[in-house]
């Protein structure tokens, strides 16, 4: 049987905020050092940024970039990361048990964003683990004040005449997690986040501020945490954060392929919690979601590996360098579909992370940079997923999963460019072994042709791109997709991510 749905431009979810295609650069492993920054590399520019990596990041189409952590931010001393490089201190970095040289810091990060282009904007996190309101204000003054004060003049003396203009700030990171440096109760964190937000807005009322939500839906405090934090911060913040990572466990690929079921329910649960707090507070304001960490991550494997590691404080070690398969990329594409389907409330999302560390781009020190399988769904979604998300209610055959019960084989969304009327359908076939015929009724869309159907799939679901074979997996054109009498007909390969562009 076929899967089907109807598209009608009169029925929309929301306009996509470009920041849905954000990412994340943490001082973790080789994301910064030998990832984006490697002075002495044959492709490094004068600032030490790898131009081969910059080119790939531009192709990926990343917008907002969260920095500098992650768990790292909860021990971050921003003053260490500015000024003459030779005077910056080396520090123990407890979150990832590494040595931080501070060779790359705040100014270098802003320089990196400027190299990327106009869509790249900073999403700066402040340390609410070991620090508080005062240090957040100092960082804000150093970064954003034009001049004439001690801290803004210090920035100018450091060579950055223009303020950094950071509009979006995260108030700490995963403060609900016992692993977090300076981990807090919801009440303690909520009060600190509200006080920090209030003070930061005294300097710049128009900032966009993100309060920490739970670090995962499985946390014992999930729900209660959001509720209590928002009771304290509702009037002061614009976003609550969400984090989710998915992995295949115990060979249960069917459940893994349905990971987006969990992601969508997680979003709906957090939205419901935000709105319940808003109702209690009799507020008309709506809190939005900053899904500022999401990805496929083989976390269980990482935890097993690090359990007995010696504490030898390496510089830029190889950490969390997952090499993604085609299956991972299909799940990843499905997570992107989940985010787009909730574009009415998810305004910011950050793919965690950008280079080497659970990333769409891998590099070798002194050597090449290449695209992981997950690079392709992200690049296509960022390129063609701009505009209005159309409502998609799928009628699809289902399959049985251990974790989520019956799940539709088809996961899909569609985005319409309001200027040209062009529509792009993003669709995943979750079946491991069967093709899925798809029929889309196009009502009032004024579309007449299939411009392109590309598919990411492989006879080997475990195929991946490696240093030895960096282009093993790439999207390919799919023939046979046709539009006639207002109906799009396509066949979705087993275990595939599809991009169908209609004109
Ligand atoms: O992205 C890797 C880590 O995952 C981040 O540092 C932390 O916030 C999360 O637990």
Brief rundown of the structure:
The protein is α/β, with parallel strands linked by helices and 503 residues long.
Describe the structure.
The chain is built from eleven helices and 25 strands. The chain is an alpha/beta fold and 503 residues long. It folds into two domains: 3-9 and 391-502, Sandwich (Immunoglobulin-like), CATH 2.60.40; 17-384, Glycosidases (TIM Barrel, Alpha-Beta Barrel), CATH 3.20.20. β13 (361-363) and β14 (369-371) form a beta hairpin. α3 (133-144) packs across α4 (150-157) and α5 (186-203) runs parallel beside α6 (224-233). The protein is 26% helix and 24% strand. The strands form six sheets. The protein has an eight-stranded parallel β-barrel, surrounded by six helices. The protein starts with a strand and ends with a strand. The mean pLDDT is 97. It has helices at 51-60, 106-116, 133-144, 150-157, 186-203, 224-233, 253-257, 259-280, 299-306, 326-341, 375-384, and strands spanning 3-7, 12-15, 22-24, 64-67, 91-93, 98-100, 121-126, 168-171, 208-211, 239-246, 288-296, 346-352, 361-363, 369-371, 388-390, 398-401, 405-408, 410-416, 423-429, 436-442, 450-456, 476-477, 482-484, 487-492, 496-502. It binds alpha-L-arabinofuranose. Alpha-L-arabinofuranose (AHR) binds at residues 26, 69-71, 173-174, 215, 293, 352-353.
């Amino acid at each position: 049987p076929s899967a089907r749905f109807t598209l009608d431009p009169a029925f929309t979810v929301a306009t996509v905020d470009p920041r849905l295609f954000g990412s994340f650069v943490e001082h973790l492993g080789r994301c910064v050092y030998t990832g984006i920054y490697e002075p002495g590399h044959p492709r490094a520019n004068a600032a030490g940024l790898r131009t081969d990596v910059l080119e790939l990041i531009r192709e990926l189409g990343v917008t907002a970039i969260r920095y500098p952590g992650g768990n790292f931010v909860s021990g971050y001393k921003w003053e260490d990361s500015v000024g003459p490089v030779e005077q910056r201190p080396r520090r123990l970095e407890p979150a990832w048990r590494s040595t931080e040289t501070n060779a790359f810091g705040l100014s270098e990060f802003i320089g990196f964003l400027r190299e990327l282009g106009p869509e790249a904007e900073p999403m700066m996190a402040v340390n609410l683990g070991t620090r508080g309101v005062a240090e957040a204000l100092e960082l804000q003054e150093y970064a954003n004040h034009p001049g004439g004060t001690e801290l803004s003049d210090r920035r100018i003396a450091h060579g950055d005449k223009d303020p950094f203009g950071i509009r979006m700030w995260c108030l700490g990171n995963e403060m609900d997690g016992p692993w977090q440096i300076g981990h807090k109760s919801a009440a303690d964190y909520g009060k600190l986040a509200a006080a920090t937000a209030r003070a930061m807005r005294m300097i710049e009322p128009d900032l966009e501020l993100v309060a920490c939500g739970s670090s995962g839906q499985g946390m014992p405090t999930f729900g209660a945490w959001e509720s209590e934090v928002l009771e304290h911060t509702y009037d002061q913040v614009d976003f609550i954060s969400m984090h989710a990572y998915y992995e295949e466990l115990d060979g249960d690929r069917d459940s893994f392929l349905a990971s987006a079921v969990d992601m969508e329910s997680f979003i709906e649960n957090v939205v419901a919690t935000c709105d319940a707090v808003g109702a209690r507070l009799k507020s008309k304001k709506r809190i939005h979601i900053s899904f500022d960490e999401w990805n496929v991550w083989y976390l269980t494997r990482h935890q097993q590996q690090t359990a007995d590691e010696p504490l030898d404080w390496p510089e830029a070690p190889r950490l969390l360098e997952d090499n993604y398969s085609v299956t991972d990329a299909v799940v990843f594409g499905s997570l992107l579909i989940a985010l787009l389907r909730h574009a009415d409330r998810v305004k910011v999302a950050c793919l965690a992370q950008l280079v080497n560390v659970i990333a769409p781009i891998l590099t070798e020190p002194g050597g090449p940079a290449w695209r992981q399988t997950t690079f392709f769904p992200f690049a296509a979604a960022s390129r063609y997923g701009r505009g209005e998300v159309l409502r998609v209610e799928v009628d699809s055959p289902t399959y049985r999963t251990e974790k989520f019960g019956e799940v539709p084989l088809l996961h899909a969304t569609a985005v319409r460019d309001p200027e040209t009327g062009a529509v792009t359908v993003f669709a995943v076939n979750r079946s491991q072994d069967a093709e899925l015929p798809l029929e889309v009724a196009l009502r009032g869309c004024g579309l007449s042709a299939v411009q392109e159907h590309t598919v990411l799939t492989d006879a080997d679901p475990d195929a991946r791109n490696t240093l030895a074979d960096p282009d093993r997996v790439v999207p390919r054109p799919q023939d046979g997709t046709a539009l006639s009498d207002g109906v799009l007909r396509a066949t979705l390969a087993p275990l595939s991510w599809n991009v169908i562009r209609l004109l």
